């Protein structure tokens, strides 16, 4: 075995061993990189250099702002207002509260950009409400966690910023626009699945549709939804960069949460900022350590080796696209979202583009695959949160989620083989 092959084995082998031993991902990435550097005789100062280089990006400055915006709005009393708006839109249907859950996640995702925040915030309100109205607790939890994935696709999503930075040359504004239609298709597919189950189990209908109530709820929720307009319109219209729009959105979110909705006082704001620092420190450590890992992958030629190996299996673009999805789904079962984006993008993006997938389309594919991974054992962060919030054993939640996995896979296949789903809006506003 050559020295280069041995270095690759040390890098990837030690990484996956530590992942299966449940090491924190940042530690696994950093330690496997250190072992490889030591084997190759490279100076350990390379670690500091690559970590600094990894987070020294103007685009990445948007990430802490988007996280802060999401936490401020999520803690500022907007959950109830968005639930009211969703109820006015779809609550009249059979299984109306399940539909409300799905639509509310679409609205809330446009503010928080986080599946975990969606599940924790909306789930703590909607799951007990659904159970009180006669829905099974495992079904209520399954609807909550699967619909939360919409929040990863609806902008602003800090994971889209991470992908754009990692992929290089991908417009954050185009990615933001690309997420709307896939998220809507995901919501519709989940609603169809929920409706079929609701009819079969005879879940209740809500109150009849009332246009006046809908207009009232739109007015009440306007200030929350306007935060998304500031970000998306500002970036797409070229008024702000992604970082500038995120900073403005933080100030706007602070004003709305404290002075308009009055869901936060100044003492609460400081607690929110503490929570932001906790989340941000995890994200930035992952980005910094993944930069070392990515440097070694490139230096050892792993992306090219992986591309040759995968392309050697078949030259059929359909099978290759399915294989890329399978790889990402498997990674999603053992790794968190940010590390997958940071590590897999440099390896898989060249393969994706070689079979005709647009980088923006592939970015949406990665995010949805990672979202499904958040619901999949053994490392399903949102699955654990949903189980805890709904007070339902994880085994029952997984069983109840199986029909919704089918809905999500159908959506993923549509995104993979119908490029216009992801690319229509970016092309329209180009």
UniProtKB/TrEMBL annotation:
Query: GO cellular component annotations, sorted alphabetically?
Result: plasma membrane
UniProt membrane topology term: Multi-pass membrane protein
InterPro entries xrefs: DctM (IPR010656), TRAP_DctM (IPR004681)
Localization: Cell inner membrane
Q: Which domain of life is it from?
A: Bacteria
Show the GO MF annotations: transmembrane transporter activity
Q: Give a yes or no for keyword DNA-binding in this entry.
A: no
Q: Give all residue intervals belonging to the TRAP C4-dicarboxylate transport system permease DctM subunit domain.
A: 12-421
Give yes or no: UniProt keyword Ribonucleoprotein. no
Pfam families, alphabetically? Answer: DctM (PF06808)
**Can you tell me where the transmembrane regions are?**
54-73, 85-108, 175-197, 218-240, 246-264, 276-297, 317-334, 341-360, 366-390, 402-425
Keyword terms? Cell inner membrane, Cell membrane, Membrane, Transmembrane, Transmembrane helix
- Its recorded name reads TRAP transporter, DctM subunit
Q: Organism classification, top ranks?
A: Bacteria, Bacillati, Bacillota, Clostridia, Peptostreptococcales
């Amino acid at each position: 075995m050559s020295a280069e092959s041995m270095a690759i084995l040390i890098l990837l082998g030690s990484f996956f061993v530590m992942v299966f031993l449940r090491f924190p991902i940042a530690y696994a990435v950093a330690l496997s990189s250190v072992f490889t550097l030591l084997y190759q005789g490279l100076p350990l100062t390379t670690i500091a250099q690559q970590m600094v280089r990894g987070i020294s990006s103007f685009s990445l400055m948007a990430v802490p702002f988007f996280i802060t915006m999401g936490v401020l709005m999520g803690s500022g009393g907007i959950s109830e207002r968005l639930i009211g708006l969703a109820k006015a839109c779809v609550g009249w249907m059979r299984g109306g509260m399940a539909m409300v859950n799905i639509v509310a996640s679409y609205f809330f995702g446009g503010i928080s950009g986080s599946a975990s925040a969606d599940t924790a915030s909306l789930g703590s309100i909607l799951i007990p409400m659904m159970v009180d109205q006669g829905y099974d607790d495992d079904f209520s939890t399954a609807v909550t966690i699967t619909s939360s994935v919409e929040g990863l696709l609806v902008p602003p999503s800090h994971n889209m910023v991470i992908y754009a930075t990692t992929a290089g040359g991908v417009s954050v504004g185009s990615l933001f626009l690309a997420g709307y239609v896939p998220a809507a298709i995901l919501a519709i597919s989940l609603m169809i699945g929920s409706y079929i189950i609701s009819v079969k189990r005879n879940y209740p209908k809500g109150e009849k549709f009332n246009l006046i109530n809908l207009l009232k709820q739109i007015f009440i929720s306007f200030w929350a939804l306007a935060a998304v307009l500031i970000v998306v319109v500002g970036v797409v219209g070229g008024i702000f960069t992604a970082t500038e729009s995120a900073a403005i959105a933080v100030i706007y979110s602070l004003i709305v949460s404290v002075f308009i909705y009055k869901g936060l006082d100044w003492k609460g704001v400081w607690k929110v900022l503490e929570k932001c620092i906790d989340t941000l420190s995890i994200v930035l450590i992952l980005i910094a350590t993944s930069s070392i890992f990515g440097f070694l992958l490139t230096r050892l030629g792993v992306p090219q080796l992986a591309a040759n190996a995968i392309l050697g299996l078949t030259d059929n673009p359909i099978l290759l696209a399915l294989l890329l999805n399978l790889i990402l789904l498997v990674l999603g079962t053992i790794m968190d979202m940010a590390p997958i984006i940071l590590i897999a993008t440099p390896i898989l993006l060249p393969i994706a583009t070689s079979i005709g997938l647009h980088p923006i389309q592939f970015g949406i594919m990665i995010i949805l695959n990672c979202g499904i991974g958040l619901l999949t054992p053994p490392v399903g962060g949102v699955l654990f949160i949903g189980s805890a919030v709904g007070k339902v054993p994880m085994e029952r939640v997984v069983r109840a989620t199986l029909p919704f996995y089918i809905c999500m896979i159908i959506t993923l296949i549509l995104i993979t083989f119908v490029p216009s789903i992801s690319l229509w809006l970016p092309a329209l506003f180009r």
